[in-house]
Every structure is written in C-alpha cells, then in structure tokens.
Amino acid sequence: MKFYNQRPAKLSLVIALALGLSACGNEQTAQADTKKVDAKPTVADGKAFINDAEQQLADLSVEASRAEWIYSNFITEDTAALAAAVGEKYTANSVKFATESAKYAGLPFGAVDERKLNALRTSLVLPAPLDPKKNAELAQISAELNGMYGKGKYCFQDGNCMTLPELSAIMAESRDPAKLLEVWKGWREISKPMRPLFENEIKLANEGAQDLGFKDLSELWRSQYDMEPQAFSDELDRLWGQVKPLYDLLHCYVRGELNEKYGDNVVDKTGPIPAHLLGNMWAQSWGNIYNEVSPKNGDPGYDVTKLLADNAYDEKKMVKQAEGFFTSLGFEPLPETFWTRSLFTQPQDRDVVCHASAWDLDNLDDIRIKMCIQKTAEEFTVIHHELGHNFYQRAYKNQPHIFKGSANDGFHEAIGDTIALSITPKYLKQIGLLNEVPDESKDIGLLLRQALDKVAFMPFGLMIDQWRWKVFNGEIKPSEYNKAWWELRQKYQGVQAPVARSEADFDPGAKYHVPGNVPYTRYFLAHILQFQFHKALCEIAGDEGAVHRCSIYGSKEAGEKLNTMLEMGSSKPWPEALEVVTGTKDMDAKAVLDYFAPLKVWLDEQNKAQNNQCGW
Ligand code: X8Z
Ligand code: ZN
Asked: Cα Rg for the chain, rounded, in angstroms?
C-alpha cells in the first residue's frame, strides 16, 4: 500500500489504501468473518478472528496496491474499473472485520490484541455501507474522482494544454498577476464536475461510518490517534495556538513586501493576501517567492535549484542523493527493484497521477516512489519526504500486518521532512554542491526561506480537515461547500480568492487530497513533529550549533535511534514512539518556535520599521 498506516497496499502517498480502495465485498469476502461465533465469544474466538482478519487483509492489500499502482500509472476507463473492483473487495472485507471486531470488545485479551482489534475497527478512511450496492457505488466514485484529478488539464486560448506540474511551475516562477490569475482559475475548472460525486461519496461514507457505530466520518477520522476524538481536536487547537503568533508575523511581513511589489490595487495593506501571488497553486507553502521577500543583507546567496542544475543533477541523481542521506545514517540502501519499478519522470504519452507518493507493494521490500520530478529545490525536498515513507515502511516490515503503519499518520509524513531539515549549507558543502558555508549573518535568509515553506504551511495543513470534518458532520451543507472553504482559508491562513467564487465552483476539489480522500491533518502534525525530531536527533548526533544549522548527515547514533522508533510501526500508542526519539510523550510546537527564534525577532523589527499593521 501506499504509504501510510494500516491500510493495504500503497504506501505512499499517503493515500493509499485508505482511501478508497478497499474493500470488498461481497461474496468473496473472507472466510474468517463467516466463522460462527457463539453468543458469548471467548478470547480464543477473538484471537482466531484477529489472525484470520490479519492474514486476509495482508493478502488483499497486495492485490489492491497492485491495481491501484497500475491505475495511477495508466489512467484509463479499464484500469479505473479494475481499481474500483479491487477497492470494493478490500473495503467490503475491511468493513466486515471492523463490524465483527466489536463483538470482542471488553474481553481480556492483553494490550497487543486489544490494539489490533481497535485498529480493525477504526482504520478505515472511506468506510462503505454494509449494503453491497452502495459499496460498489462508493468504490466507483472514489476511483473516478482520483482519475479526474490525475487527468486534469487547463487549455490556454492558443490551444496549448498543460498538466498540473507545468501549471505549478508557472505559479512558482511567474510574477505577472494576470498570468498567475489565469492559471489559478484555469486549474480550478477541473474540480467543478467533482462536486456531485464528492457529495455522494461523503453521503455513502458517512453511512458506512454510522454502520460501524461512529456518529459520522469525522468522528471516525479523529478516532485514530490513541485519544478521544474531541481531545484530539482540542490538541490541534492547542498546537496551532502555539504557532499562530509566529505565523501572524510572517503573514504581516510577506503581505507588506507583496504590497510594495504589486501595489495597493493587487495587495491590500491590511486584508487577506490574494491566493495567486504566493508561489504555489494552493498558497500552501511560499518558498517560491523567497526572492520577492528576501532580506537585503541576510540573503545566503545560493539557490539549491541552481546548484542542482550547475552540477548536472537529473531526476535519478536527485533520488540517489536523497537515498545517500538515509544510508549515511545506517539504513540499508534501497533495493534494486526500487530503481527499476519507480516512476521518476512524467510520461509524455499517457495520463498518470503526478502527485508524489511512496508505495510498498508487497508489505516487505517492493518499495517504490511515483513522482513527476521537477529539477528544483522544492522537489528535492519532496524526494526526501517520499523516501522517508519508504524507509519507514521497510523498517516496520517485520511487524504483524495490522501494525505495519506509523505511530500515527503524522509520523509517516514527518520522517522524510525531518531528514530534509538537515539539508543545510553544511550538508550541501559535504556533498559537494556548495563551496562555502555562508556565515551566521546570513542565517535570517535561511530561516526566512524555511519559514515560508514550513510556518506558512501550518494553517493550511490544519484548515483542510477543519473544512472536511464539518462537511462530514453536516455543519457545512453542500450548498455552501465553496463559501465555507474560503471562510476557513481566510480565518486560518489570511488568504482570499483573487476573484469572486461561487457555488458553481468546487475549489476544495482542486487539491489532490480531497478527490483522493487522503486525510490532511497528518501534514499539520508532521510540521510540528519534524521540528521535535530534528532537535532531538541533532542532540543525539552531538551537533552543538544552532538547530537551524544542524545536519545529522552521517550520524549512525541518530540513525539508530530513529530506526528504533520506525521499527515499532504502529504497535504502540504514538506517545511511546515519540518518547523513543525525543524523550517526551507530548507533541509540542516549542521546537518550532525555538528553531525560528532569531527570525521572530527579525520579523518583529521589520514589521515595526515598516509600520505594518498586522492581522486581516
Ligand atoms: O501530499 C504530500 C506528499 C505526499 S504524502 C507529497 N504532501 C502534502 C501536499 O503536497 O499537499 C507533502 C506536504 C503536504
Ligand atoms: Zn507524504
């Protein structure tokens, strides 16, 4: 599976199984479930059930991953139908096991089996209703939405049509507001027809969640964190509360710079920032506009995109270099099949899902990535992100099937990012990309670039599921999908649509994870966790400098500690996994604040000196 947690096959991208693929169905469903259980089931019955379920899910997950891999690499009507059929089967079985697991609740199994039973009950991301017809419908919708996104193109007036990687490059590089606006609007045409499908998908999955005893899909999604759903929501608010003051300063500074560049007619001095000017299709990370906002005296004077080009890095060499970081920590090199089976570049002759993902096809060693790699600094980081999934998958391959997943889904997303935090000037010099490490007077530039990616992302990482959870629980009605989306974009991020939007639009669908049905809070968590991991691993590596200059490259001690956590898979509650590396059981954004402390001082000064009025 894709990369993450206890689902079947893919791994990577997160998406995977979880999604939709699962299922099953009907007649071919596993035998395990059909086993007769007496009115009073015993512990022995329960253990037999768990073993059967685990075996069947393991087998099904391989089948589902293969079908999904083929679909994502060759999007056609036929591969969609095959992926939907396997997904239906996988889901049906998962639902069956989830339902049956309830029978054993409360029996004295011991911690391991209790954890497995709980996982069987709560790990579905897109649960189908028990009615097989509805399950088939849900599997078909889910496959279709994925395909619509993967096939998405925008055609300019001259007839030139572009896919998402090309459109994203324009968003990253162009500084012409009219061009940016056209591309921004153009990409959002692809999601308009998704709206009725999405609405139906949610209706069916909510029914599926209710069949399993959850109030709605929101409660199910929030039940996967070793705590009560409401406590998890509160925890997110607490973490965001820690980061928000820093985000507000960054927003204020960036808005001031953009106002200066584009003028009052394009960027208001006090209102939300128009979402097409931040260097990214979704305004989710802003590193691409670094040059527009860089500090006059603190710019480090190098650009990784340029260093890659100057040193003739092609796509494969970028992946090799990233692998080299992991092996420097003591991880085994990737298997030969990784290199022959992965997709690194966008094929010209067919539709593929370009959104980067990492997969584990056989739940053992057949790990792969699927990416349409662009030769940029941003994508170099994404490669590390994806390999983080692959190395995690391989580290937990000896766990029982149900525990082949991360401690929580934020952990899966955080590992590669943690490694990428070590792509510092010191590291770039070690691998021969940079001649000289800039002195400390340039740290503000380095920190600002990092904040544009990481701090700017945090409210985005949070708001997507704030929107979805309200959609799931009915607080947001279909008639206000788009309006509510932009209210949350404004509330959390302080950005706004650059042109009027209406309910004829379906802007959430223009973001991969919505049609892909991939939960998104994981990325918010990952953005907190990666700073905790980085700080702790730097200490273990004995790096005594500032944490933003630290690289753990080559540290076997750091690698060993990291591996100890990865090997645990999801066999223990996540606080125990967190403790292995960081020594604490709590998620804490203080590590983020510590990392950016010098930048905070600087942003404060800049905003004061420029008389910026912060907030929106
Ligand atoms: O989807 C991803 C990864 C695959 S799990 C490329 N990310 C999120 C996104 O692109 O929106 C990584 C950061 C956030
Ligand atoms: Zn990921």
From this structure: 23
